[in-house]
Amino acid sequence: MSDYKPKFVSLALKNAIVYIILIVVSSALIGYFLYRKSSAIIVNSSIQQLEHDLEVLDVRFISYIEQIRQDILYLSRSPYLNDYLIAPNSAQREFNKVKLSNDYFSFLSTKPDYGQLRFIANDSLGLEKIRTDRLKGHIFIVPSDALQRKGSSAYFRETILLPKDSVYFSEIDLNKEYGKISYPIMPTLRAACPLYVNGKVEGIIILNTILNNFFEHFKKSVHSNSELYLFNDIGHFIIHPDSTKEFGFEYAKLPYAPLEFKLPLDFLTTIGNEIKSVDTKTHIYYFKKINYPRSNYSLYICLGAAKDVILSPFYDWQWSVFVITLIIILLLVFLALFWMRKQTNGLESITKSMISFPNSLSVSDLPLNRNDEIGLLANTFQAMSSTLQQNIQSLADAKASAESANKSKELFLENMSHEIRNPLHSIVGMTRLLEDNNPRTNQLPFIETLKFSTHNLLSLVNDILDFSKLKEGKIQLQNEPLQFYDLINKIYKSYIFEAVSKKISFKLICDESLKNLWVNLDALRFSQVLSNLISNAIKFTPGYGHVELNIKNEIKNDHSVFLLIQVKDSGIGIRLENYKLILERFQKENRQDYLKNESGAGLGLPIVVQLLELFGSTLKLDSTFGEGSIFSFEITLESINNPDSNTISKEAQVSFFEIPRSILIIEDDPQLRMLYQRIFENGHNTIKQLSKSLEIGELAVDQKYDLIITDFWLENVSLFDLFEQIFSYKKQDGLFIAVTGHHDIDAVLKSSHYLLDMVIQKPISPDKMISEIEYAFTHMGFQIPTLEVLYKDYDYDPALILSALKLLINEWKDAREQLSKAILSRDIGMKDAVVHKLANSLRRFNLIKLENQLIMIKFEPFVNSKQLESTNSDIQVKMHQCEMFFENELKKWL
């Protein structure tokens, strides 16, 4: 093979000559492109600006109308107004009237755009009962002798005919007093809402909005080169650059709009939600119809611009550029095309190989014999492609190996969680039964030891699972209201026995100001942090040493507390140079003298460090080797009022044992079956236990149960495929619960397609299990949709009913998904839009409770993520049950 290499000639040298020529004439070339495109760019830019401004104005107008709607609905639901309407006597009504008037006064004080707020009774005269006015910047309550009769007014007659929670919007006109236009001019919009009591219209509430401020801001938001118009469907201007043309209908003038814009007769009828344009000799106009909430009344918004204003910069220099540009086109286009084509032939073959390489992992037709940069590039790419092929294969092998290892890890964690939590569940339950069986005094220490050991083993399982989740960023804090000192005291007491058994003095020192403190806190994760620090402190402290848990309140205000938490010990201490190594690898100091009898140290400090990062804190160490250590961290917690008043009282909750229950238990573990038998037997409950999957199919078809408890696995076989069959044995108002050792209970709930009402993770104490079941019975409540009205609407025609049910099912599925997104992202606008869309179906099918629950969902700051997830889960279950009901009805009509 020859060693000859072609002489290298630089591609840069070849191109330099051509590029020098191009650089000389580049200024003229720039003029050419500017000439060709500047006019179009200027016009298009102006058009885009007009269209954008038009969309912004439309959104701003609709948002303003929606705010008025929300305000009038808010006023119609006022508790003061309700008290006034249902007052038992005239004296009470007068008293309530004063409170309502003051409320209206306060409302107008905070809403400068509103000029008048009235309550008009539904009597033959339509007499104003309460009226609050704003006049020349002052707000006053109109005395009774100045109130007017409005029974003949159009807004009164139209509003009292509206259904509940509907809002009437008037046409936009000028404010009048006693039939005369008020001065200064005040464009006015009236919004009203009927007030129902026991299904009867008691009157209306009406709000006058003075639009001067809004129109002023509306006009200022338009670009200085644009002209803003707002007119109604008749053609009368409400906003016009010439104010003398505004509100012509109030002065008996003819409409200006058709003549102003030279519109075709049917032009306005063709404007929908899309933007329409009119191009005259002198102007460009863009029109859009505003979605104004009133029938037989339309508003149109228009933005216009003069063409000479738009193109004035272009006209100044277009002719001088034109001649130069024409000469450049003839010369440079030919040279550029010829030379670039010659140079790019080789590059094209390299480019094609590069494009096809990711798919084929091979190269072909490369110009390897060229003596310039293209030849060098081709040879380099060929060598690089060979290296890439080898590396890609190595990566594929490594990826397959990593995926296999990850699957093995996940399988190990899942199996470990299930296999350990199951016996722990039995131990916890049996320990509780031992406590309830009046143990002898000398047996109590053994029971306490059993409870403590169970707790430690469960903590170890959680540490292993959490360590994996923390590394993958899958853990989020789930804050909930709790009494801070109560949590601290429980953690402290759980380690007293271990400290005493090692002859270690263990003290809790806590500021008195914290003993009645309520906070929003993730108790599980916070307990993990403290438990790991305390456990390590006791474990590495020799006998007759001391351990101290010290909690100080550094700063406190109405909304938060800043705490310094320290765990001190008199153990062997840690060398500071080894602290980072301990955190990263969890290596222990040389502690053989103290740990001969220890069973292990878990994953403590790495989990503590990563959990504290979630709390926005860091772990600090102050240690003297051979004398002891102080682990500390600072944390800011949200302080709250005692939330007990907002929770359901014990008397209001349904007691599971108050009435006889039929219970189905599906469990293959004989110890757990015995435990459940002991938990639920009370003399009048009927308990049926199954230990094999085949026994499920042997149940009577008509047998229904109040409560079904099942494991996720039975005889090492998943019950996932049997969930629908098991669900069919649940009473309509019953509960279907899975008690599982699976480490991800959300995955279990989703995999059941929300057939499960609840998933309980093992282990759980009998008391806690009963409490959660009682809570679920208290908060459950699924209304059966009433579809008779739908069947009547379609005259019981099967084809039409089938079509309607299919559309209904799709609508509910889409709404359920949108609701979930809205709730979890706290998007109140999206939530309200979905509820509004569903409102007709909810009312027609008598799903009043579900509608009220959806309406009452609020995203207040004190509502934490865990509560939102609980609310979302509850809504998902109820809406999914409705979907299943609709699907069952669909099957009946097939």
Automatic annotation (TrEMBL):
Q: Name one GO cellular component term.
A: plasma membrane
Cell compartments where the protein resides: Cell membrane
Domain Histidine kinase span(s) in chain numbering? 415-639
Membrane-traversing stretches = 16-35, 321-340
Q: What's its catalytic activity?
A: ATP + protein L-histidine = ADP + protein N-phospho-L-histidine
Entry EC number(s): 2.7.13.3
Q: What is this protein called?
A: histidine kinase
